[in-house]
Amino acid sequence: MDLADFHDRIATNVARVVLGQRTTVRKLVAALVAGGHVLLEDYPGTGKTTLAKALARSLDADFKRVQFTPDLLPSDIVGVSIYNPRDQQFAFHAGPVFTHLLLADEINRASPRTQSALLEAMAEGQVSLDGERRPLPDPFFVVATQNPVEFHGTYPLPEAQMDRFALRLSLGYMPTEQEIAMLTARDGADPLASLSPVVTLDDVRSARRALAAIRVSDAVKRYVVDLVASTRTAPGVGLGASPRASLAVMKLAQALAAFDGERFVSPEHVQEVAVEAIAHRVVLERDRRLGGDSAATVVARLITALPVPV
Amino acid sequence: MKLPPLLLAAGLLFWGVVTGFPLIALALMLAMESPRWIRARWDFDPKDYERVADLCSVAFLLLMVWQWFGTRQGPEGILTVLGWLPMIFAPVLLLQRYGVSGGVPLSALFWSLRRGRSGGVVRTLPLDHGYFAVCLLSATCANLRAPWFFPVLAGLGLYALAPLRPRGRSMAAWLPAVVCAVAIAYGLQHGLLVAQRQVEAFALDFLRDRVFGRVDPYRAQTSIGDLGRVKLSDRIVVRVGGPGARPMRLRDAVYDAFAHDAWFARSNAFRDVATEGDRGWRIAPGSGPEIALSMALVRGRGVLPLPANPALLDHLNVSKVERNPLGTVRVQDGPAALTFTVAADAAGVGSELGPTPVDLQMPERLRPVLMETLARWNLADRPGADVARALPAAFARDYRYTTLLTDAAGRKRSIEAFLTDQREGHCEYFATSTVLLLRAAGVPARYVTGYAVREWSAFEGEYRVRARHAHAWALAWIDGGWREIDSTPAGWFDLEAESASVWQDTLDLLSWMHHRWNQWRDRDPGPSEGVGLGWLAIIVPLAGWLVWSVTRRSRRDVEERRSASRTPDRLDHAMAPLLARLATLGHARDPSTPLRAWLRGLPLDDVAMQAAIRRIADEHARLRFDPDAADDAQIDALAVDATALSGRLVPSGAAAASDATPVIATSRR
Fold it and tell me: Strand B445-452's sheet: what is its strand order?
């Protein structure tokens, strides 16, 4: 199975449940292949959780879901060692993080301490508990969701932790026709239940390996770096994107190129993923933010200001 | 730790003033501190740093070698080069100060870090502090003994260390501590200086006592009385050439008083020899064919070995020539390898001091033996000239030359024993005996040391005089002049030659090369040649190396980036007709829109045309952005397609208006 086929299978499967989100699904799969984690940020009820679940069902993989709440503890995620009086030893009870696909629902409702526990696992691919390192399964893919407007009882993710996500996607409200179609589809049984896995874990692993074969020319690399670097000097930006952003953009662009059946990355692929891969790492100055500007619009402006290599 | 502002400039200024390069220091200061005001920075490759660091290191080493061997400074030349360090290593720091990384990659400083590098993290080290320290070190090399030197040095050091001042301490506590530290440092270095002076004085005394120069014009310690083999080295000490006839002997020094088995010069007041305009140093009136002599001088001074009756010394590169009444000539402040010519008046009688009562003195204890010897040879009552003539023949007949001084009879070696029963010895015995016998016969006589000139080298075209050719003979005052009387049996030279080392030829060759090198180094340079050649010897190899490394690099770059650098130009060229045609049709691309996306999105009425343009767009993107795809033939094919397509493009309105000329349905070729 080549990468294009890999994407098509998942996209077709997910489209049976999530309507009209082909581009979002395309980027979501790209993040899965590129080895980056995804933050889905949108208004309640737009289908974030459904999308994540649909992706989980499309994979023949271990899937866990954690509903983040203010009283959630780190041990609720990574696990805990419990003393067993019978054999007089501590036994490790693995938390939900020991899975292939983790849905961290409403991640910004948990306390920073709990968030950190998850984000450390995301960055390191392992969990340190009781002085012992426990590697997470491979692949390990996190889809987190958060609601942007829900200010009550939320703890916004700090910039350093936002940087751990390769992509921040939003779904947006669907057009009227699609919403009607959705109502029709939900008339009967839950369509999620009818989804069956279309790719295996081995497929995911080999897709990740195949990504390395997608070639990136020096011109495109420079374009990526110039684009990311331009966020650091852009007016109104308090904190620009990190080199980790450049890396994420390149890998995601490689995945998108592969989905298009190409063996090389062209600037379109970079542009396609740039806003979602860069914007969440950029912190605007306070007056810009209050003036109604968003990081996404700033990055979009930077893209239109930077000449592409031809 | 950041360098305090303008510290580097202060260090450079200090260095420049102390070492006498104020202009260079100013230029360097300007170059080093300009980055404070100039925002532009260059993104240098680690390779650039390595190359420049290598260049500086090579320059440093070459300068070291040059100063040591190429100039007369010798090892002291290293101090000179150390004084140039801020100049030599300025390029490395300039690269750092104008580069973006703010440091010098460690790989530029350590060869070991260059191997196995795999494009990983480049670790850098800021060299500002090191460079500042080098400035101070170089300044100290100038050895300036000005009273302000130490305070300024201490002040600069304190300024450099100021950022490390403990924050919690008050100035009132810190300042006295600093002053204390400076005072202790001053005391220590002063103590070191005093100690060094005392050690030097002691060492000088020691050496003066134990080690004599090659020739002592005041005293000749003979080996008379010693036992064992008198063995001298094969080292070539003088070379004799030139058009003049070969002198049989070269005189080093003349002595007139004998006591305790040693010869002394009683008339030893050296007087300056005057120069004669441009013609050289005039020793005595008269002239003759020139003989060229080459010899080594130790510490720039020594006694000149000269033929008999020297008249004029020329091409003698020394500051002072002195001569004593006995005819010994010594020079001062000459090069390590001295080459000069001497014109000797073969017919002259010499300008040395005439006979004095000293020239007739002899130890009284020897008088009976001497008179007995003269009587044995029937020379007791003969005129002086006859005695002088007869002595060499008599010695040759009855005495034997040897360097092996045995003590078979259990008696001490002495002149008495030599004359009476041992009757064998080396030249010092023969010469001393001859002088004393002449004096006993009433002839004023002196003792001469020097060399016999016998060994011709066809290879060098010169006579070689080795250390083992050292010889001694007598001067006798006969018929109003000093005549040389050499009574050592003639076979002595061949006997000495037998003791030659098996390595002699090799050593001779090395000696000759050394001699030639010294000659070249100490030649009389023209006004600019001396400096020019020296710098050329350094700059030419360096420039060659730089050019080589740059061309090698560019060659490699060409190989690596052939597809990357040339392809865009060719592709631009290939697409130019199509893009120009589209521009005339009113289609303009925003610079931020990728070309392929723009071409695909062009509002074209004709589907076939759209497909053709898409194909071209895809092909262009592939050739442009796939690093493995660059292929000249494919680019040419793309150019043909694009040109053909541009010819078919018509304004969308025009196509619709005239059905008679439909847009050609294109196929790829």
Answer: B249-255, B445-452, B470-478, B481-485
Q: Is there a contact between B592 and A268 if contact means CB atoms under 8 Å apart?
A: no
CA dist B455 and B237 (Å) reads 12
- Asked if A310 has any chain B CB less than 8 Å from its own CB, the reply is yes
Q: How far is A5 from chain B (nearest CA, A)?
A: 20
Nearest to A269 by CA among A209, A231, A230, A214: A214
Measured CA to CA, the distance from residue B107 to residue B88 in angstroms comes to: 19
Q: CATH for A212-310, among 2.40.128.110, 1.10.10.10, 1.10.8.80, 3.30.70.920?
A: 1.10.8.80
Q: Which CATH number fits domain A1-69+100-107+138-186+197-211: 3.10.310.10, 3.40.50.460, 3.40.640.10, 3.40.50.300?
A: 3.40.50.300
- What is the interface pTM, i.e. ipTM, of the complex? 0.85
3-state secondary structure of B65: helix
A202 touches chain B (CB under 8 A): no
Token pair belonging to B175 = 């300042």
How far is the C-alpha of A52 from the C-alpha of B267, rounded, in Å?
A: 117
Comparing CB atoms, the residue among B564, B625, B629 nearest residue A265 is B625
Crossing angle of the two packed helices B149-161 and B171-210, in degrees rounded to 10 = 130
Q: Which amino acid is at B21?
A: F
B627 and A305 in contact by Cβ < 8 A?
no
With CA atoms as reference, the chain A residue closest to B593 would be A308
CB B444 within 8 A of CB B355: yes
pLDDT tens column, A238-296: 888 989 999 999 999 999 999 999 999 999 999 999 999 999 999 888 888 888 888 88
Distances (CA, A) of B32 to A33, B27, B54, B85, B139: 49, 9, 20, 15, 18
Q: Decide if B64 contacts B120 (C-beta within 8 A).
A: no
Does this model's pTM top 0.80?
Answer: no
